[in-house]
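Can anyone check this?
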Amino acid sequence: MKISLRSFYFIAYIFLVAAMFLLMNFWGTHLITQSLISERKAALYEEASSLSKRYFFNVRSLGEYDDHTEKTLRERMDSLQTMSHARYFLVDNNGRISVDSSAKNSLEGQNFNDLNPTFLDNDTYTGHLNTTFLPKETLSVIYPLSTDYDLNGYLVIITSLQQLKTSASHLLKNIRICFIVFLLLLMITLNLLCSSTLHPIRKLTSTVQEYSNGNFNDDRHHLPLQEYMPLLTAIQNLANSTQNANAYQKDFVANVSHDFRSPLTNIKGYAGAMLDGTIPPEIQQKYLGIILSEAERLSKLTEQLLELNRYENKGILLNYTTFDINEVIRNAAVSFEKRCTEKRISIHLIFSSPSLFVDADRDKISQVVQNLIDNAVKFSSQDSSIEIQTVEQKGKAFVTVSDHGIGIPEESLPHIWDRFYKTDVSRGKDKSGSGLGLAITKEIIDAHREYIHATSILGSGTDFSFTLSLHTSGF
């Protein structure tokens, strides 16, 4: 099941909240408590060291202190207990408690070894001592007192762990307040992020829907994040391509209808006229020839359409061979001898060398040459000439077909490779053309990854030039 982006953000937010809550209340509490215990241990140990240096405790001689000295010592330890919330003990080297800073529930006279046999073997101790007069959970610092490397006893400082845990809870409470503020900020941030994501997606979706409905005037240029601009540009380019394709489709249908309608009308008209006797039998042969010519024209148009469609869908499969382009041109020129004689057109072959070998698809290039010569013959004036030239230049074979016909207007030159395109000046002369020859020619040359170009002067003629790869002996 697919979820919405807003639901995804909400689930992510809940997950983050739950994860932070668990980390803070379990691992966070443990880390804070351990940190406070470590700090407290260090502080108590430092306090014990300071006391031992200040008072030079000699537990063995405690009984020899006068009353004033012992009273002062007890007052000092009581004061320390009040300030540090810890309990101080002076213990002899046998473990017997000599002085207890607390007068209430005093442990003087008792032995720490009875409370815990391993207690005095540690520097610090965390845990429970077997007495009801101390907290259940304690943190203890055991500082040895010595004179001239002789152990006199111990200074023991004990504090409650519960106090540290309470302090940790207070700290955690403050952290929770910060966490709640963070959650609010995170919620606002996720809402802004969601809006900045969903709003452009909705706009882009609306744009695509408008484009799909044929409304290409829908403008969506104001998006909050620059990362969306390449996507918007791609959508607009796709819309432009679709719009151009729609326009091309309309032109394509109109042109096909026009080019099919004329021969079909002639075939239908002449056939009907012969059937109803309008055309007498003695002259029907002439009109049967016209019908055959129109049928061949339809057949040629259909074949060219299928050929172009095959090129676009599957690409042109090329069969590369090495051949003499001059020979191909000679053969093509011979095939136009009859039409040239009828129009009194002469074809001049101008070759820079007797033979010029190239690597290409011979049949496809022959078709290109045929199309270009056919185009030149079609639009050449009577009593004119056509020049076909080949020359080797910069590692390429250049083939140029020039005529001295009606020419092509400058504004029409970029469109001559389009399907069914016919310039206004050619429409009167191009009665039999399909408007597909130059489109097929361009497809073939592009498939060879070569270059074809047309230049023309209106009323003076047109030059078509294309290139082919020269054959080298190293191949």
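Reply from J.R.: I decoded it. The first strand starts at residue 87 and ends at 92.
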